[in-house]
């Protein structure tokens, strides 16, 4: 490690989202009521380029907080606004919140975006963009994907239905292109200008139903040409596929992550690309560790890949030692510092760590 | 002070007619009158002794006791000042230290003198933990362990059945030399708690200690010297324990020194107040003196000139005078050396200047000192965070909570959090603002056994969901309250019971004789009032339960009969009912 800071949140979070002004949001998911959404100011040590050892301000500060009546499973900041959108069980409706940190430290609930409640619907996955207007893309299943304008709550787009599989994540590639990833691993592209078409990307290698998949796209869809998009998919058995969206008929690369056993709880699977390090990605959700991989030399053989770095802090820090070992619920990369990550686990811990490139690969 | 503001804590509480001042602190950010609390809120002129029943100081930090000599000697107060034994021992040292900086270094004139500090401390009454202290016949106080620094306490103030708990600064997680704050389920009407760190999510202690050790180690490895200016007590012990353990583990040879005077004082105080440290220290102290270290030795002035690496703890803490400043001047010019400032430095001190980034300092005699050594800052201060505050509220179970020591806009979230979780009211007043808390006083009343037995025998047993109404007489005599049966009350007071009877006249049309009318009424009522006891007496009158009805002839009109309905006060309801029933008239076809 170059640096490691450990913090303890009052309640565990399964999301870490960057919001306006370099703030970070976390939220509780455990209780049925009284979950807190917290917008945190990271310690100044994280915001400067230099890594300072001793610094008066080493702590996260809670800038503002809100109370959610339901568990918060997903939270996204709506760019260019002071709004947040959250989703969580028991249904696929969304909640919109207003953050006005200068006036008060309470995040206020503004409105609810309701959706039709089909039976057995789980919570909605969300993505946001502010191109023509602040939009939120949401849906819990492939046949229930829509885009809603955040402020007016009007529906501006509904995706054509191509099956009713559960979605594991979705993303805006740009203001017209959507990427949808199903829990089965199926990847679909859609164009908002052509509501009826849904382009399939290549499916995943094996289709035993026990595997669950999630995807990671490069952060900050706005500004990047869709043609340079690499999508990574991670399965609960540790399989990683890389797909180039220009050539969706084949895999760019296929590898197996070094995980001891398949993830028992697929909902915390997380894969993300480093915003400032070409070709690096991180995965978590199998146990109390986060793996960092360099994908630049990967091929399509499906061989086991060697992680460049493994963060084990959550597994060791486990406070009382009683109960199950902590499971990493989410991780994210720092937007500017190339090797800094933030990760959270089911015991409420929040770690910020900066890893050192191992010598052989310099 | 300290209402939505950090610094100069001073809270005035009026409880059941008693006035108590909680803390008397100084604001470290100001140089003028704003550094002291504004006592004109209490009275515009004159001495404060008449207005206050007592003053309580929670701990020795200057933002809680720094204005005490000013308050007691310059404004004027001669009543008792309560604080714990360690606080009483340490306060004067810090006050004198601060006085020296302000007067000698900064040349201020309107400040308290050394004699004033001494006179002030003469008014102090020291208390023990969990000891109930009677301030006067009605007012009592009790101190609880607060952690935070040596001798810090939370205070419960009680008058009759109303109470307030003031936390001062406290900490809910134990550290190397102090335990965690603790209070019992005392259920005060109001809990006043600090909320400075409510919005902070602290970096774990392990990480901070690790970084501290790393810096010290790096400096020592490259042959540099590390200066750590400290107060005589508190964090210094924590850091010594930390370094000693590290040195032992890493088998390091560089010497660590603790400046003279410091060792003796520290040991002296810790021996005196061993009960105030945590469990672990107390256990080890029994085996060996915890503050006699294997790797840490007493410092001699001459050692500062020795070549090679070393670590030195020296007083005073802000580098404003004395040994630490001397050492600093010797070592400042070498970039291999390091100074680690352990806490807040008052404006005007060298410590404050170098922490602000100044690297060229003007010393006495216009000498310029160039600071090439590394300047680091580290805070190990222990305050409760949001989780800790919630824990304390859960322990004490107050009916209301008041937040101090935080910044206005940043306490709204905590306020809502507390209100939602504990269903209590939460207040956050600004300086000068008065908050009124309504309490539900409990008045104990003794109930006579006879009355209790009698009432309990009637009807179903009392249930939490169905309170039972009972009748009795409340006797208030000589400050005692008793609930007895009315008969007993009459007997005790030598009074005769009066009976109240109401009589109502109902006119009905009936030309027949009185006793026939009476019979009609009887049959009518008997038919309707199936659940009541309706009787026809030999003299012609009718009784319904205890209500009497008599039919008489109207004096002037033969066709009208007058029914006299008569009942006692207790039967009001039935009486009214019968009256209205009879007013409706009798049915025509009655035998």
TrEMBL record, chain A:
InterPro entries: WD40/YVTN_repeat-like_dom_sf, WD40_repeat_dom_sf, WD40_rpt, Wdr73
Superkingdom of origin organism: Eukaryota
One cellular component term from this protein's GO annotations in UniProt: spindle pole
SMART domains: WD40
BP GO annotations: cytoplasmic microtubule organization
Protein name: WDR73 protein
Organism: Alaudala cheleensis (Asian short-toed lark)
Lineage: Eukaryota, Metazoa, Chordata, Craniata, Vertebrata
TrEMBL record, chain B:
Record keyword Flavoprotein present: no
Cofactor: Zn(2+)
Chief site of localization: cytoplasm
Key words, A-Z: Cytoplasm, Hydrolase, Metal-binding, Nucleus, Zinc
Keyword Manganese: no
GO biological process: snRNA processing
Domain Metallo-beta-lactamase: 7-224
Sequence ranges assigned to domain Beta-Casp in this UniProt record: 236-354
Any GO CC annotation of this UniProt entry: cytoplasm
Location of the protein in the cell: Cytoplasm; Nucleus
Pfam families in the cross-refs: Beta-Casp (PF10996), IntS11_C (PF21386), Lactamase_B_6 (PF16661), RMMBL (PF07521)
GO MF entries: hydrolase activity; metal ion binding; RNA endonuclease activity
Classification via Gene3D superfamilies: 3.40.50.10890, Ribonuclease Z/Hydroxyacylglutathione hydrolase-like
Family classification: Belongs to the metallo-beta-lactamase superfamily. RNA-metabolizing metallo-beta-lactamase-like family. INTS11 subfamily.
Stated name of the protein: Integrator complex subunit 11
Species, as recorded: Alaudala cheleensis
């Amino acid at each position: 490690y170059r640096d490691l800071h450990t913090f303890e949140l009052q309640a565990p979070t399964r999301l870490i989202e960057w919001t306006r002004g370099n703030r970070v949001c976390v939220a509780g998911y455990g209780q049925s009521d009284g979950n807190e959404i917290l917008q945190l100011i990271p310690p100044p040590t994280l915001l400067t380029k230099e890594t300072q050892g001793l610094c008066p301000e080493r702590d996260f500060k809670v800038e503002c907080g809100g109370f959610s009546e339901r568990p918060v499973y997903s939270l996204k900041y709506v760019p260019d606004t002071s709004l947040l959108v959250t989703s969580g069980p028991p249904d696929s409706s969304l909640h919109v919140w207003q953050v006005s940190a200068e006036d008060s430290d309470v995040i206020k609930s503004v409105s609810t975006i309701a959706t039709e409640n089909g039976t057995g619907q789980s919570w909605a996955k969300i993505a946001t963009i502010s191109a023509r207007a602040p939009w939120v893309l949401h849906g819990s299943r492939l046949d229930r994907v829509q885009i809603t304008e955040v402020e007016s709550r009007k529906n501006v787009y509904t995706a054509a239905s191509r099956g009713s599989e559960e979605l594991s994540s979705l993303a805006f590639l740009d203001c017209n292109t959507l990427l949808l990833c199903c829990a089965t691993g199926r990847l679909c592209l859609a164009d908002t200008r052509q509501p009826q078409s849904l382009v399939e990307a290549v499916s995943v290698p094996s289709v035993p139903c026990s595997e669950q998949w999630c995807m990671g796209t490069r952060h900050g869809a706005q500004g990047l040409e869709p043609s340079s998009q690499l999508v990574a998919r991670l399965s609960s058995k540790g399989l990683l596929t890389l797909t180039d969206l220009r050539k969706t008929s084949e895999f760019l690369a296929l590898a197996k992550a070094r995980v001891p056993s398949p993830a028992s709880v697929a909902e915390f699977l997380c894969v993300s690309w480093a915003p400032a390090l070409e070709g690096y990605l991180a995965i978590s959700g199998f146990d109390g560790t986060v793996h960092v991989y360099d994908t630049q030399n990967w091929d399509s053989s499906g061989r086991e890949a060697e992680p460049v770095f493994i963060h084990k802090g959550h597994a060791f820090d486990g406070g009382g030692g009683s109960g199950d070992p902590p499971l990493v619920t989410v991780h994210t990369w720092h937007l500017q510092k190339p090797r800094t990550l933030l990760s959270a686990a089911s015991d409420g811990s929040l770690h910020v760590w900066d890893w050192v490139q191992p010598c052989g690969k310099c | 002070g300290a209402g939505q503001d950090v610094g100069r804590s001073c809270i005035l509480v009026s409880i059941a007619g008693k006035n108590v001042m909680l803390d008397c602190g100084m604001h470290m950010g100001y140089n003028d009158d704003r550094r002291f609390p504004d006592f004109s809120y209490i009275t515009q002129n004159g001495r404060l002794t008449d207005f206050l029943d007592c003053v309580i100081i929670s701990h020795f930090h200057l933002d809680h006791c720094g204005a005490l000599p000013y308050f007691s000697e310059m404004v004027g107060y001669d009543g008792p000042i309560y604080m714990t034994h360690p606080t009483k021992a340490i306060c004067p040292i810090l006050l004198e230290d601060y006085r020296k900086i302000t007067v000698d270094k900064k040349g201020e004139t309107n400040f308290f003198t050394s004699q004033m500090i001494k006179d002030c401390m003469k008014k102090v009454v020291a208390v023990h933990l969990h000891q109930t202290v009677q301030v006067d016949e009605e007012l009592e106080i009790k101190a609880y362990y607060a952690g935070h620094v040596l001798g810090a306490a939370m205070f419960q103030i009680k008058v009759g059945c109303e109470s307030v708990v003031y936390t001062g600064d406290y900490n809910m997680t134990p550290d190397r030399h102090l335990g965690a704050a603790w209070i019992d389920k005392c259920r005060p009407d109001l809990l006043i708690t600090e909320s400075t760190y409510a919005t902070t999510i602290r970096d774990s202690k392990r990480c901070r200690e690790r970084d501290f050790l790393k810096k010290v180690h790096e400096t020592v490895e490259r042959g540099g010297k590390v200066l750590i200016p400290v107060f005589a007590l508190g964090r210094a012990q924590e850091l010594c324990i930390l370094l000693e353990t590290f040195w032992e583990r890493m088998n390091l040879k560089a010497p660590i020194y603790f400046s003279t005077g410091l060792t003796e004082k520290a040991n002296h105080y810790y021996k005196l107040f061993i009960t105030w440290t945590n469990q672990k220290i107390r256990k080890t102290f029994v085996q060996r003196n915890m503050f006699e270290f294997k790797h840490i030795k007493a410092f001699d002035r001459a050692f500062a000139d020795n070549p090679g690496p070393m670590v030195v703890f020296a007083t005073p803490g802000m580098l404003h005078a004395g040994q630490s400043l001397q050492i600093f001047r010797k070592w400042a010019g070498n970039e291999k050396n390091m100074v680690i400032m352990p806490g807040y430095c008052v404006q005007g001190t060298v410590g404050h200047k170098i922490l602000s980034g100044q690297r060229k300092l003007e010393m006495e005699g216009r000498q310029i000192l160039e600071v090439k050594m590394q300047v680091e800052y580290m805070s190990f201060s222990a305050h409760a965070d949001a989780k800790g505050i919630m824990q304390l509220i859960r322990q004490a179970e107050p009916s209301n909570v008041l937040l101090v020591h935080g910044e206005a806009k940043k306490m709204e979230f905590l306020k809502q959090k507390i209100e939602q979780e504990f269903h209590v009211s939460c207040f956050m007043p600004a300086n000068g603002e008065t908050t009124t808390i309504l309490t539900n006083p409990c008045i104990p009343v003794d109930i006579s056994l006879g009355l209790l037995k009698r009432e309990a025998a009637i009807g179903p047993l009392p249930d939490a969901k169905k309170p039972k109404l009972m009748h009795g007489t409340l006797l208030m005599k000589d400050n005692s309250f008793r609930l007895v049966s009315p008969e007993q009350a009459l007997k005790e007071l030598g009074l005769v019971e009066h009976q109240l009877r109401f009589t109502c006249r109902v006119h009905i049309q009936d030309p027949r004789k009185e006793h026939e009318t009476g019979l009609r009424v009887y049959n009518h009522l008997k038919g309707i009032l199936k659940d009541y006891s309706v009787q026809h007496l030999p003299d012609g009158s009718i009784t319904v339960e205890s209500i009497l009805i008599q039919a008489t002839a109207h004096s002037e009109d033969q066709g009208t009969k007058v029914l006299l309905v008569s009942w006692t006060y207790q039967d009001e309801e039935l009486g009214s009912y019968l009256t209205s029933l009879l007013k409706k008239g009798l049915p025509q076809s009655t035998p």
